[in-house]
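tokens incoming
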């Protein structure tokens, strides 16, 4: 007896694999679709290690479209369908030095005119909200290079956090409700190529992927989606397919103490709710975790941070001490001496060209990769684009009705605008 052949096999049950599997099933309910992961349940890879922020504040119109439609889906799932995603909207307060604020002002004013829920603040507005907590012109820390002064900030309101695991689980649940099947605890060691005639590869014949193989067996399918996150290059490189992304470690540190408590309890933001604070240097950000009076600090370092797969990345105390703390304490002196309550590390699958996801098809393989640090907040839109690419459609309608040309996220014919607001 030969193994059953699935119409579609989706490898990876992170938020992007779950979203893609759901949208493939939604678009083509007669398809037999198998979603697989090596973990015992969805969202146990880097989706679980995310800081889980979302925002629609982007300068690239592609990013805006992907994120704002996905945020509208979050509201729908929680508000209309009553499925608790742990959604909290507290906004982003993105502080900038004079050069950055001057450069971005025209773009930000344009976004505001076109309906983005944002406000541009000058120094006096920042002072009114953050009072004595903030140092506008910090001294250079540790006698090193200067930290830029605070010229103002952008308050973006359509932003906050949610539970990425609940979100991925919701996509997976809807996928199964439509008849999709799952197999967990199956580690794929390799994708098996063959000629389209069903035997060994010959250079003059077209090839395709026929199956995935691991210690637990083999699954055949007509078409595949690879959404294996940071593992994607190590699965595709042996096949000679370039995913165009590289894994890189990112870290998060939960800081507590008097300074963090004071910021939570004594600020001028509406309702006293602290937003995400982005400091003007190096994109260091602080996510408020009000229930624990904690600020979760992160920073995306590039030069000196090697690329490479690390299946069990660990947070580095030196990175916090030497890179993050000097910036946080420079702008927020009350944070000196804050203690680390929690910390973790995960890996981005980074697209180093433009920071946007890649969704493309090669042979019978759809690749969904490169979500970098924004895979959660763009998940529904990326899933829709990936499903459309997989089903050979040229465009897709995002949740909010925006029509997107799927080639925009591909390799050939790629069209994504420049993004100036990356952290
Ligand atoms: C520290 C940190 C902070 C972040 N903060 C944010 C944020 O604030 N907002 C945001 O939107 N995004 C954020 N991100 C990015 C976000 O987490 C990712 O973009 C998103 O989770 C990617 O989802 P994914 O499905 O592609 O990957 P994953 O969640 O990693 O899913 C890939 C799945 O594939 C499975 N898999 C891989 N290889 C195999 C194999 N060989 N066999 C079987 N299964 C396999 C894995 O088990 C995994 O479940 C952050 C990431 C990190 C690390």
């Amino acid at each position: 007896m030969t193994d059953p052949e699935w119409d579609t096999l989706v490898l990876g049950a992170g938020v992007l694999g779950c979203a893609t599997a759901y949208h493939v099933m939604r678009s083509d309910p007669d398809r037999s679709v198998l979603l697989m992961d090596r973990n015992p349940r969805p969202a146990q890879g880097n989706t679980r290690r995310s800081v889980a922020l979302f925002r629609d504040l982007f300068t690239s119109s592609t990013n805006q479209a992907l994120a704002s439609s996905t945020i509208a889906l979050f509201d729908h799932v929680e508000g209309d369908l009553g499925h608790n995603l742990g959604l909290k909207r507290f906004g982003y307060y993105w502080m900038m030095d004079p050069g950055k604020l001057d450069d971005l002002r025209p773009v930000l004013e344009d976004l505001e005119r076109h309906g983005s829920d944002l406000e541009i603040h000058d120094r006096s507005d920042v002072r009114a909200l953050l009072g004595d907590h903030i140092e506008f012109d910090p001294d250079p820390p540790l006698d090193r290079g200067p930290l830029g002064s605070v010229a103002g900030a952008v308050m973006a309101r359509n932003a906050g956090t949610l539970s990425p695991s609940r979100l991925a689980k919701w996509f997976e649940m809807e996928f199964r409700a439509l008849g999709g099947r799952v197999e967990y605890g199956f580690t794929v060691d390799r994708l098996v190529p063959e000629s389209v005639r069903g035997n060994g590869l010959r250079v003059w014949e077209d090839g395709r992927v026929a199956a995935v193989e691991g210690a637990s067996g083999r699954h055949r399918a007509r078409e595949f989606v690879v959404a294996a996150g940071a593992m994607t290059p190590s699965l595709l490189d042996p096949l000679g397919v370039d995913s165009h992304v590289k894994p890189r470690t990112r870290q998060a540190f939960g800081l507590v103490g008097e300074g963090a408590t004071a910021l939570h309890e004594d600020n001028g933001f509406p309702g006293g709710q602290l937003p995400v604070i982005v400091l003007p240097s190096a994109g260091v950000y602080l996510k408020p975790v009000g229930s624990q009076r904690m600020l979760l600090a992160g920073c995306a370092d590039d030069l000196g941070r090697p690329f490479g797969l690390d299946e069990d990345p660990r947070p580095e105390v030196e990175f916090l001490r030497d890179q993050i703390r000097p910036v946080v304490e420079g702008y927020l002196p009350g944070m000196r001496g804050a203690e680390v309550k929690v910390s973790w590390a995960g890996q981005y699958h980074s697209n180093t060209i433009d920071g946007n996801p890649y969704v493309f098809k090669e042979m019978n393989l759809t690749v969904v990769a490169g979500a970098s640090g924004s895979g959660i907040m763009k998940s529904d839109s990326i899933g829709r684009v990936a499903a459309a690419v997989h089903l050979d459609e040229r465009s897709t309608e995002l949740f909010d009705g925006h029509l997107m040309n799927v080639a925009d996220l591909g390799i050939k014919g790629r069209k994504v605008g420049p993004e100036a607001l990356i952290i």
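note: The domain at 5-50+165-244+353-409 is CATH 3.50.50.60 (FAD/NAD(P)-binding domain).
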